[in-house]
Design goal:
single chain, alpha+beta, six-stranded antiparallel beta sheet, DUF2140, DUF2140 family protein
Length: 194
């Protein structure tokens, strides 16, 4: 009977030593990232780290008009941009000493390269009926627009090169989705890491 207890004691002691050695080996190994952890972390795109951002029309309205005001784009001819089910540009421009109220609406489209194209949808200019391309030329020559916004009167579009937009710390922006009717707006922020 004494040998059985002695044998059981050494088996238990051996098992405990083996468990302690296994735990020590596992604890001293480098940490490996699992697939789930890798998918949650941001991926490097060249010398930038990307962050996906989802927003809504109300918040983006605030950001757009704050940016226009901060950067001085609402100068002598005041205009504002509002996002509803479409992109709306409200403003006025001088004609024969009068300021005519104007509303242009655009249908936005996010491009694969991350830029936006705003396709002109409708125009309201007091009670005047002017050709869209002419009104867009007037906007192009009278409104102070960011360099990364290009009015294309002949195509009746506005090209918004988001990647060329200058933000603090050289952060870049790419549009992923821009569906205003469903309030589905997402961007990728590219933050430099060097």
């Amino acid at each position: 009977m004494k040998n059985k207890w002695k044998l059981a004691f050494f088996i238990l002691l051996g098992a405990m030593v083996a468990i302690i050695l296994i735990l020590f080996v596992l604890a001293s190994m480098p940490v490996e990232h699992g697939q789930e952890r890798k998918s949650q972390s941001s991926q490097l795109e060249g010398d930038h780290v990307s962050f996906d951002i989802r927003t809504n029309r109300a918040d983006l309205n605030k950001v757009i008009n704050h940016y226009l005001e901060e950067e001085g784009f609402t100068g002598p001819i005041d205009y504002q941009v509002f996002l509803t089910d479409e992109v709306e540009l409200y403003g006025a421009f001088p004609l024969f000493g009068q300021h005519l109220q104007m509303l242009l609406t655009f249908e936005p489209e996010a491009l694969e390269n991350g830029d936006l194209v705003l396709k002109q949808k409708s125009i309201t200019l007091g009670s005047l009926d002017l050709p869209v391309s002419r009104v867009m030329k007037i906007i192009q020559s009278n409104y102070k627009l960011p360099e990364w916004v290009e009015i294309q009167p002949n195509k009746e579009t506005v090209y918004v090169s988001l990647i060329d937009m200058e933000l603090k710390s050289n952060i870049k922006v790419r549009a992923n989705t821009f569906n205003l009717k469903q309030d589905d707006i997402s961007f990728t922020l590219l933050v430099p890491v060097e």
